[in-house]
Design brief:
The protein has about 170 residues and is of the alpha/beta class. Helices cover about 45% and strands about 20% of the residues. The protein is built from six helices and five strands, in the order βαβαβαβαβαα. The chain has helices spanning about 25-35, 55-65, 80-90, 100-115, 135-145, 155-170, and strands spanning about 10-15, 40-45, 75-80, 95-100, 120-125. It has a five-stranded parallel beta sheet, sandwiched between helices. The protein is globular. Bound molecules: 4'-phosphopantetheine (PNS).
């Protein structure tokens, strides 16, 4: 007899991140996670230690605007420990994307720390689509700041919001 555990047995997963802004690399992970789990909660970190380009409300709304075609996705903000948020969501799986070996050390440290403080929560990693393996929100913001073309990296709605936001900032300085 062969016993197998279906990923679908784990009904709710949390996909956390800063998403400042959400990229096509993130969207690829969101869409794939949505196919694997009954319910996916995207947790947007209200990160006070970094100065984000977008407020947490803006980041949440931007993700909502491009994930409305996915019925099992919910977008929420969170502050504090990720494992506490996962408990509040009644989930027991964290999903993270792995782009390259350079991500691995940080991701492993985070997953192992989370597992020590909350052993009932597991982290699973999805390898990022090769097409987006180099992509990060910080690089996209840098390109946009120098008025480079960001349309290859972001959903058109998000690319427009980034351009607007940088324009707004330029006007204010
Ligand atoms: O998109 P990011 O910035 O790589 O996401 C990092 C995130 C939000 C997953 C991480 O910073 C996080 O979980 N922060 C919450 C605070 C926390 O739980 N820290 C302990 C984890 S080791």
């Amino acid at each position: 007899m062969c016993l197998s555990i279906e990923v679908n047995d784990m009904a709710t997963a949390v996909y956390p991140g800063s998403f400042d802004p959400v990229t096509l690399g993130h969207m690829d992970i969101i869409e794939r996670t949505a196919r694997m789990f009954d319910h996916v909660i995207i947790g947007v970190l209200q990160n006070n230690s970094k100065t984000p380009l977008f407020s947490v409300e803006e980041r949440v709304n931007m993700i909502k605007s491009i994930t409305s075609h996915l019925e099992n996705i919910e977008v929420r903000s969170f502050d504090g420990l990720l494992v506490d948020f996962v408990h509040q969501c009644r989930a027991d799986v964290i999903v993270r994307g792995l782009r390259a070996i350079t991500d691995f050390e940080y991701e492993l440290q985070m997953a192992q720390t989370n597992r020590v403080i909350a052993p009932e929560i597991d982290t699973i990693f999805l390898t990022t689509n090769l097409k987006y393996s180099y992509l990060s929100s910080s690089i996209v913001k840098e390109i946009a700041e120098y008025e480079g073309d960001i349309s290859e990296f972001l959903h058109p709605v998000i690319a427009a919001r980034v351009r607007e936001k940088l324009e707004e900032r330029r006007r204010l300085t």
